[in-house]
Specification:
Number of strands of chain B: 0
Mean pLDDT of chain B: 64
Largest sheet of chain B: none
Helix content of chain A: 55-70%
Strand content of chain B: under 5%
Shape of chain B: rod-shaped
Distance between the termini of chain B: 140 Å
Structural class of chain A: mainly alpha
Low-confidence stretches of chain B: 100-107, 125-130, 139-152, 156-163, 180-196, 204-233
Oligomer: heterodimer
Radius of gyration of chain A: 19 Å
Order of helices and strands of chain A: HHHHHHHHH
Number of helices of chain B: 13
Shape of chain A: globular
Low-confidence stretches of chain A: none
Order of helices and strands of chain B: HHHHHHHHHHHHH
Largest interface: A-B, 53 and 40 residues
Mean pLDDT of chain A: 80
Amino acid sequence: MEPATFDPTQASDETLMLAWVDGEVAAFEALYGRHRQRLYRFLLRQLRDPSLADECFQDVWQRIIAARAGWKPEASFATWLFRIAHNRLADHWRARQHRPPAPADGDERTARIPDPDTPERTLSEFEQRRQLQLALDALPPDQREVVLLRLEQELTLEEIGAITGVGRETVKSRLRYAMDKLRARLPADSACD
Amino acid sequence: MTLPDPSSLSPEEQALAQRLARLGPHGEPSPALDARVLAAAHAAAQAPAARPMVHRRRWPAVVGLAASLVLVVGLAWRLRLQPEPPPAPRQPVAAMRATAPAEPPVAEPAMAAAAAAGPEQTRREVGIAAQAPAAAAKSAPGSPTRAPAAVPPPDARAKATLATPKPMALPPPEPPPPPPEVILDSVQHVAAPAPPPPAAAAREADAGVAAAADADTSEAGQANDSAGMREGDEPSDEVPPATAESPTVRDAWLQRIHGLVDAGNIAGARASLREFVRRYPDYPLPEDLRALAR
């Protein structure tokens, strides 16, 4: 195998993808390392089930691997990645015909896990997490997806529009509505003060 | 886009993003999950990259080939079924012969011959000779092609004429030569159904002869060859010259009249002369015949 002619730490996502198209496994490993956590958290936030998140996560990367022969740098890699994730989630919801309700005691069970932190801190974090989760659950799915892509993935409105298949103004409108609802439901973050 | 730029978020968005990041979920792919994904990538890198199938449209080529085959088969079929061109229509021999120059001009000399010859001979000769112009006159003046349908070939006519030798001996007194229409009726190949009046018959014969003469003029050479009569042929005394208006015809007629007078057939000579005068009123008669015409 020929030595990589690119620097994985400095190359852009598109350069790494082109190298991966040419058969450079190191380029793919670099891409995977950059986006694995973001993608997984995004899926986990949407599915709220680790097992489902693992399944969708692996499916998304399988599609990335299979599509390398026909990949063209028409859009950013991140947009392409999350578009595949969005479509995979849509397939999941279509197959399920409904969005699984949030487990009633899921957060509580997570909170019972022994934590080295202090009890007060654990309860506070649990409560804050619960409030945030409830606030996100209260959002419509399209607004929730937009706010998560924006806040957690830090994607631009155009990229979010490319992923979800809507225009920039629609994304902007959904994000504004989502932020207003979260602001209304979430108390001020005392930890940030 | 490489790494997300935190500065792209507004302050409010950054605050909420930090809250989300801090409060979780903090999940990450498990090492096993990472291993499975990377293993799939290595396996794909080992296998040659499957190029996306370019669905070339083949149907246009197939349709074009099919159309070409249909065209070729259709052309071959039509050529196979195409009927042979009909043969060139044969002109009736009679029609071709009718355009011969020898056919039309039989009217007057034939009458002259009839006047000079015997009844049967005259009847035969004149009838055969006159049937061409008479038929032409009957059918359509000026359309000689239709008239001569029943005209016997000139050879036959000549044979018919020659078959009956015409002795110049003194025949017994006989009635004046019958008008052309009567002679025509007795002829086998006459096409005219009803005999016209003598004057009319004579005029019709003239018209027919003139029309035939015109036809002959228009188809000179070609008709002559086909009819068998040559322009250079020497017409005998029994064969009239080309046209009725030819001086030769009148001279021959007058000669016949003289022959009748010499033979003692004054009545016949007078009748023939009378007919001659009627036909050619402006023609100056010889002095010896003027008394006979009175």
